[in-house]
Amino acid sequence: MSFSPRLALTALVPAVAATTKRVIAAGQAMWRIRRHRREVHELLNYDARALADIGLTQGDLMAALSLPALSDPSRRLVVLAVERRAGRRAQIREQLAARIAGPAPASPLPGRLDAVCRSTAGG
């Protein structure tokens, strides 16, 4: 069997194309991360009220910008905002459940119960 340059070239083309696609995708991802980092940095100019409107704080921005350079800070901001929103919703649900349930029922015999507890405690 003899070596065929044409056959070797046709086998090499898909590998080169796949590698090229991966390099281009990595470059695009790095560009996107850089753009997002710049946009998050611009959010530092917003006041606390404007940041609160979008569910963020200055601390969130600083935490996101302190991530390694090759990680996307906007993803961290999304996670922080969603967690804060979920916490607020849970808090509201608990408050509503407490309102619906009403005040806790009083002990049926509050005076006697206290006296019994004191006598059994040795007091």
Helix-strand layout with pairing:
Elements lengths: L4 H39 L4 H6 L4 H8 L7 H29 L8 H11 L3
Helix pairs in contact: 3-4
Q: Any overview of this molecule?
A:
76% of the residues lie in helices and 0% in strands. It is built from 5 helices and no strands. The longest helix is centred in the N-terminal third of the chain and has 39 residues, at 5-43. It has one domain (5-103). By secondary structure, the chain is mostly helical.
Quick description:
The protein has about 120 residues and is mainly α.
Number of helices: 5
- Helix percent reads over 70%
The gyration radius over C-alpha positions equals 31 Å
Instruction: Show unreliable segments.
Output: none
Give the averaged pLDDT, no decimals: 82
What descriptive keywords fit this protein?
123 residues, mainly alpha
